[in-house]
Amino acid sequence: MNPTNTIITIFGSTGDLTIRKLLPAIEKLLQEKLLDDRTKVIAVGRRDYTTESYLSFVEKELKVPFNTKALIPHVTYFKLDVDNQKDYLSLKQYIASISNSDTRKIFYLAVGPELLKGIATNIGESKLVEKEDLNATITFEKPFGSDLASAKAINALLWQYFDEKQIYRIDHYLGKEMIQNILTVRFANKIFESVWNNNTIKHVKIYAKETDTILSRAGYYDTSGALKDMVQSHLLQMLSLVAMEVPRSYNSEDLKNEKVEVLRKLRYDRKSLVIGQYDGYQNEPNIAKDSKTETFVFFKAFVDTPRFKGVPFYLLTGKALEQKESVIIIEFEETSEQHKWDLPLFTNKLYIKIAPQDGISLTLNSKVPGLRNAVEEVDLDYCVACNAVGNLPEAYEKLILDMTKHSKSLFTRWDEIELSWQFIDQVKQDIVNKQIPLRIYKNHQELYDLIYEMTGESI
Ligand code: BG6
């Protein structure tokens, strides 16, 4: 039970993120009594809704049945023009009228990148959030800029008005159950302590495959592409968690200090870089007929720390692929006993399965039952969802709950963003300077065959 009295003010209340993720997550937290009865949600928007008509709009948009019963009494619609400072002052007055000095105030900017700066400035100028008032915080979604320079500019603006402690940068992958579990699997198990290094790990694969195309996100996606949309954030976060050193403690700052060191030591092999665009992308509504935006990317990277020096990390993400699957596969070296066996043994693999099913599995060599002398690869498989009581929490439930508790472990710090952009900018530059070809793919196999030719690795 979290006894915090919280006001969550959401800018972008008619957008997809609010309707599909944030409101259902808050609803769930209320149902589970993880947010208390005093919680208020202020849905800010420019349209002319009343609270009632806003809630009907939400229900209609959701299409699937959504039980808003727990949420309804907590929501108020507040009309605001994001460019008009006076409206922010009215919002401030309204919030003052429903809060007290203990109230936790979260300002969640669920808006497109083009609105971030303006809204943040107005929130700062109107003192809706005052610097150093740790009870008032501001939350952003990615993308944080579109390259290092623009990310720096956004950040400079934020630091002008807010303390770093008040800024919550969301990478929703960090709220996923199995991403949080990476640390537990790594650091709470003796069996992995001595093998989590380049003596024993052969390579690491980090995949985030999607079957979806860009759906209705042309405007954003075409200026972004797979590298900026997925690698800069989710994939590099996964990589940092796998490759980081043992932190001094598991508190937020110590964890981030180690993740940042990984990003500092990250480099990639340009010759392994494959970028692709699904066939038909240029015919999607609102996409330029000659768009060169990549919807697929693969490369081999290295983390030059004593622990991981020489271990390839294969990163892959893309749209319109054969399956929706986010997974980390840690493959161990061949056993040193192989030469004494007259049959080939399998390498051990640890799968950290993030989506669609959360779970862990570890493969082992095992004797085939019976009289013949044979070895098979068996799977010690743990399905998290199958064993959870009730549904697993959605990433946003965890992230919102942590915000109410001032817990920042699952949010990204500025230096993580800075270093990841530095890396992505380098890759982007190489694509242009080295004229890396954009492969148009009709299906995933064409790309995977190419990757096999180039690196000898099968996907
Ligand atoms: C988002 C990207 O951050 O993550 C989307 O902008 C992508 O393009 C999505 O589809 C994938 O998230 P998930 O949780 O479905 O794996």
Automatic annotation (TrEMBL):
It catalyses: D-glucose 6-phosphate + NADP(+) = 6-phospho-D-glucono-1,5-lactone + NADPH + H(+). Residues 184-443 form the Glucose-6-phosphate dehydrogenase C-terminal domain. Keywords: Carbohydrate metabolism, Glucose metabolism, NADP, Oxidoreductase. Residues 10-181 form the Glucose-6-phosphate dehydrogenase NAD-binding domain. Pathway: Carbohydrate degradation; pentose phosphate pathway; D-ribulose 5-phosphate from D-glucose 6-phosphate (oxidative stage): step 1/3. Its EC number is 1.1.1.49. The keyword NADP applies. NADP(+) binds at residues 46, 81-82, 142. Coiled coil: none annotated. It holds the Pfam family G6PD_C. The active site is at residue 234. It comes from the Bacteria. SUPFAM superfamilies: Glyceraldehyde-3-phosphate dehydrogenase-like, C-terminal domain, NAD(P)-binding Rossmann-fold domains. Substrate binds at residues 172, 176, 210, 229, 319, 324. Belongs to the glucose-6-phosphate dehydrogenase family. Catalyzes the oxidation of glucose 6-phosphate to 6-phosphogluconolactone. This is Glucose-6-phosphate 1-dehydrogenase. It comes from Paracholeplasma manati.
